[in-house]
Amino acid sequence: MFVIFSWLLLAASVQAAKLTLQSPRFTISSSNATTLRTETFTTTQKPEPLTLSSSDTFKLTFQITEEGEGGKGVQPHQTFLRFYDGVSGEEGIQPIRVTPGGKAKFELNMARPPASIPPTTTDPLKVTLILGSFVHEPVKYELFDLYIPASQPPPQHADEVFFHTRPVIEHTFHPEQKLPPTMISAVFACLVLSPWVVLLGLWAKVSPSVPHLFSPSVVPFTTLLGAFELLLFWYWVELNLGQVLLYGSLLAVPTVFAGKQALAKTGEWRQGRS
């Protein structure tokens, strides 16, 4: 029982242990290996913002230990540097390799920046160290602000313009058609019906015998002619041209046969009269 209790106390003490940084140091050098700036800083007070040019090299070294005097070096399970742009919200995560003794080194060559660096502008990147461990409390340290050259815009593809928002297509509709006055409509309706008046007048002149007008051989032909007139009126108010041609072709067949029969009967009537 005592052994189990001792192991629980040991596990609680290990779990309560915190990770800290020892001797964090950065160095900025130019392309010809000239040291431009080097400084050892603490996690409680950030150094002045760092500025890198397109040819500079940045090196960061530190050791991860357990908090307290004589803390031994610790290798966390996860160690990351986070680069965050507080204005645009862009961020990038860069893993860092740590030795079993807790020593770590990170190098950033601006001539060949890693893909983990987010797109940059003239705003600084906030650099944060994130440590994760199964046996220690996770910890996060705000290290410094870093100014690096603004990212170059990506080359524009020839078809890129077709994937942007296009202008809104606006349709211009003509005003609704105005109906003519009732008098004008009546006049033209009379003009449309006038051929029937002429036809009936000529028919009465040619055939004085009215009963022949309503004979079984003439009525179908007259009815089909009236159907053509109704079809044209229907076309005027509702149908389209294709429908008129279809219905007209269907009416044409019986009209031809009815017309032939009417002409034949009329010829017989003329011969019998003579």
UniProtKB/TrEMBL annotation:
<dbReference type="Pfam" id="PF25147">
    <property type="entry name" value="Ribophorin_II_C"/>
</dbReference>
<feature type="transmembrane region" description="Helical">
    <location>
        <begin position="218"/>
        <end position="237"/>
    </location>
</feature>
<feature type="signal peptide">
    <location>
        <begin position="1"/>
        <end position="16"/>
    </location>
</feature>
<feature type="domain" description="Ribophorin II C-terminal">
    <location>
        <begin position="173"/>
        <end position="270"/>
    </location>
</feature>
<protein>
    <recommendedName>
        <fullName>Ribophorin II C-terminal domain-containing protein</fullName>
    </recommendedName>
</protein>
<feature type="transmembrane region" description="Helical">
    <location>
        <begin position="243"/>
        <end position="263"/>
    </location>
</feature>
<feature type="transmembrane region" description="Helical">
    <location>
        <begin position="183"/>
        <end position="206"/>
    </location>
</feature>
<keyword id="KW-0256">Endoplasmic reticulum</keyword>
<dbReference type="GO" id="GO:0008250">
    <property type="term" value="C:oligosaccharyltransferase complex"/>
</dbReference>
<keyword id="KW-1133">Transmembrane helix</keyword>
<dbReference type="GO" id="GO:0006487">
    <property type="term" value="P:protein N-linked glycosylation"/>
</dbReference>
<dbReference type="InterPro" id="IPR008814">
    <property type="entry name" value="Swp1"/>
</dbReference>
<keyword id="KW-0472">Membrane</keyword>
<keyword id="KW-0812">Transmembrane</keyword>
<keyword id="KW-0732">Signal</keyword>
<dbReference type="InterPro" id="IPR056790">
    <property type="entry name" value="Ribophorin_II_C"/>
</dbReference>
